[in-house]
Description:
Blueprint: E1 3-7, H1 15-26, E2 32-34, E3 50-52, H2 69-76, E4 86-91, E5 105-110, H3 121-127, H4 131-149, E6 154-157, H5 160-170, E7 174-176, H6 183-186, E8 198-201, H7 210-220, E9 224-227, H8 233-239, E10 244-248, H9 252-261, E11 265-267, H10 276-282, E12 287-290, H11 295-298, E13 305-308, H12 313-324, H13 332-340, H14 344-364
Helix pairs in contact: 7-12, 10-13
Amino acid sequence: MKVALVYDRVNKMGGAERVLMDLHRLYPDAPLYTLVHNEQTAIWSKNFKVIPTFFNKIKFFRNHHEPLAPFAASAFETFDFREFDLVISVTSAEAKSVITKPETLHICYCLTPTRYLWSGNQNYREAFPIKPLFDQFVKSARRSDLIFASRPDVYLAISQEIQNRISTYYQKKSDVVYPAIDYEFFSQPHQHKKQDYYLVVSRLVPYKKNDIVIEAFNQLNKPLKIVGTGSEETRLKKIAKDNIDFMGNVDDVKLRQLYAKAKAIICPQDEDFGLTPLEAAAAGTPALAYKSGGYLETIIDNDTGLFFEDQTKDAIISVVNRFEAGHHQISLKHCREQAAQFGKDRFTKAFSAKVNQLWQQHQKTFM
Length: 367
């Protein structure tokens, strides 16, 4: 079976990129088709055969893909997949818009229906300077997105949260296959003692809500380390006090060390699934997380972490104080046990089994 992978853009490192690396281990010969490719900011892609669209010829777009949003789907439509039996699109945006022949099975492993059009629409609208113009664009873009959403033959969802969104926005059924964490790596025996700091691991973009964590720790005056970069980095650094340390991007060995030494990881966003609290749990570190989205499927309240109800500075201050006071029954042993359920072997077996089942069903329609 000849397989191709498709992803929105290959220019950063995050949870979706870890999914792609796991798929590469399953399908090592599969080329990776994408809108734009930046080798310097996506070092993980060096083992892939990456095939970008014509937009990649303009270097500016490799790290500034946002202006391409109205044209991205049209660019994906130019790819020719006639030689492939199976196309797997991994997407939260336009990669699902690729065109395949009927004999080719197109499975969409959906990270979320296009966020700025659907579940995150209000957050993006608030940040846009000319709201009537944004509303007009969204109205048209939603119609197009529904057309693109009809192209995959089958949907797989990364969580029950995303399964619900696929049903709500695209009117499509899907099965859940949870992504994997590298449990063996992050749970490796270590001699690190807990230190007096909290940790955020996140892209620094508006919907991740890192600003409320900074505001909370400005008031708490407790040490906070922030791993990640993004469009909000300059603004966040300006509002942060001296107790907050911006680490930038770090390699996995350093990240594992930061997880293991932290008192807890802070997770303020409404996450689609959320790999970081599971990676932290593998290292024996609990999560203080917003009670919503994918976190409800991976964090056990008062056992592997604590939830807070509102995305506000005061809610984060309250949960940190509750954690510090010991008003919980968090078990570091249970943290590791919970994380172990999301290891790579489980993902490989579950994803392979689902693809094989879907491929057999698909073949029957052409017999």
